[in-house]
Design goal:
The protein has a five-stranded mixed beta sheet with strand order 1-4-5-6-7. It is of the alpha/beta class and 240 residues long. It has helices spanning 43-49, 54-78, 98-107, 111-117, 125-203, and strands at 7-9, 13-15, 18-20, 24-27, 33-37, 91-94, 120-123. Helix 2 crosses helix 3 (98-107).
């Protein structure tokens, strides 16, 4: 995936309520936009890892889960999918570590379902990378399909141009054939009507400096452009 081609970071989008700036917009092959938000505070989780007692640790983890739940609500309220044309009706909330999501789910097991009901998908680095690989594969298949369509179009154009060239070449051959036949007819006329009279001069004592050599007829004619007609390739709308 190439930045600013298949995805855009900090994309600026003007709306009726002001400008919005999602952290990342993934460009999908079907001209759709998939919004990713990465603003998940982790302070409470870090406090839990440094807590001196189990009670403090449990309290910090509960705050961490509450913060994640609050971020889900905030993100759902922004409704990014309504601000981007042809965007799927969900937004990805990126959690920068599987352990951060696991800790929140341990405190609130229904967090994933709550997020889905609000059109928010929680993603960790593992799941986000898998998603990006799937999107990249989709782009590769789109490029292959476009290349196949271009090859098909080029093949049709080449066939049409070869057809035109063969037609022109056939006309040239016909003209050459007509010229050869006219030449041979002229040679025959020369041999029958002109040369016999010219040879009489030598019989009458005329001594030419060069011997009159009649031109030879052309025996070979041009070949016709012929052969089995190959079916023309066609560009179809459902080309893969």
């Amino acid at each position: 995936m190439v930045e600013h081609c298949d995805f855009v970071t900090q994309s600026h989008q003007a709306t009726e309520n002001g400008a919005i700036r999602p952290d990342m917009v993934i460009r999908l092959p079907d001209a759709r936009d998939l919004v990713v938000d990465v603003k998940t505070p982790l302070d409470a989780y870090l406090e839990a890892t440094e807590a001196a007692t189990d009670a403090d640790r449990r309290a910090a983890l509960e705050r961490h889960a509450a913060i994640v739940a609050g971020r889900i609500r905030e993100l759902a309220a922004k409704a990014y999918w309504s601000q981007f044309e042809r965007s799927p009706e969900f937004v990805i909330l990126f959690i920068p570590g599987d352990q951060f999501l696991s800790a929140a789910l341990a405190e609130r097991p229904g967090l994933l379902d709550d997020a889905l009901r609000q059109n928010i998908i929680l993603a960790t680095p593992t799941s986000l990378v898998a998603l990006l690989k799937a999107v990249a594969y989709g782009w590769q298949q789109t490029a292959l399909a476009q290349n196949a369509a271009e090859i098909r179009t080029s093949a049709v154009q080449l066939y049409e141009r070869l057809t035109t060239f063969a037609s022109h070449l056939g006309l040239v051959g016909k003209s050459l054939g007509d010229s050869v036949r006219a030449f041979n007819a002229s040679v025959g006329s020369l041999e029958r009507m002109v040369l016999p009279s010219a040879r009489r001069f030598t019989d009458l004592g005329v001594q030419p400096r060069q011997r009159l050599v009649p031109p030879k007829s052309i025996e070979e004619l041009t070949r016709e452009v012929a052969g089995a007609e190959a079916p023309a390739p066609t560009a179809t709308a459902d080309e893969p």
